[in-house]
Amino acid sequence: LGSEFDEQFADHMVMDHKEDIEKYEKAASMNNAAGTYAKEALPTLRKHLQNAESLKAATTGAAR
After folding, report:
1. Are the CB atoms for 4 and 32 separated by under 8 Å?
2. HSE-CB for 10 with a 13 A CA cutoff
3. Going residue by residue through the chain (64 aa), what tens digit of pLDDT does each one get?
4. Contact, 49 vs 17, CB < 8 A?
5. Per residue in 8-47, is it b (16+ CB within 10 Å) or e — as a string?
6. How far is the C-alpha of 24 from the C-alpha of 60, rounded, in Å?
7. 17 close to 45: Cβ distance less than 8 angstroms
8. Is the CB of residue 35 less than 8 Å from the CB of residue 27?
9. pLDDT in the model for residue 3
10. Which of 4, 22, 34, 49 lies at 20 to 30 Å from 11 by C-alpha?
């Protein structure tokens, strides 16, 4: 049960970060405070996605 939870958690983290990045990229094109915030937040979101992908790789059977 624990490893199954870990895999599902990692899958959701990757999926959620990809969705968030897509939304922030769209917002970053706006020339206002929201656009500025989105531009500044994108590098952090991309780093979090990399971490989530690493976690996902570590929780799959192939990485064990």
Report:
1. no
2. 17
3. 688 999 999 999 999 999 999 999 999 999 999 999 999 999 999 999 999 999 999 998 654 4
4. yes
5. eebeebbeebeeebeebeebbeeeeeeeeebeeebeebee
6. 29
7. yes
8. yes
9. 87
10. 34
* C-alpha separations of 20 from 15, 32, 64 in Å: 9, 19, 29
Alpha helices in the chain (DSSP H): 2-28, 33-59
Round to whole Å and give the CA distance between 10 and 48: 12
Structure tokens at 24: 């922030």
Tokens of 36: 């500025």
- Residue pair 17/52 in contact (Cβ under 8 Å)? The answer is yes
